[in-house]
Amino acid sequence: MDHSAKRAASIYGLMTQQEPDLVFYANRQGQLGLSVAGYGEGRPIQTNDALSGRDANRRIDLRFIMVVPSIEADIRWHCITDTLSLI
């Protein structure tokens, strides 16, 4: 297991230790709503050429997908509203 996967598993363990019911949360389709993944060098948000970039890439992204959009228009709408909420 690489560092990113270990980091993700560690955070998942801490979260579920504090709130054990998290492992049971599911969306309307019955799919678990919380999972972990380690992306390692596959999804950097900054270059690894500098220490600041390497620090930024050591991160945990939390994503909760409770409803999967069923049509392309819904997917575009969610992307637009998510972007606006960040502004």
TrEMBL record:
The keyword Lipid biosynthesis does not apply. Keywords: Cell projection, Cilium, Flagellum, Membrane. SUPFAM superfamilies: OmpA-like. Gene3D superfamilies: OmpA-like domain. GO terms for cellular component: membrane. Residues 1-68 form the OmpA-like domain. The keyword Membrane applies. PROSITE patterns: OMPA_2. This is Flagellar motor protein MotB.
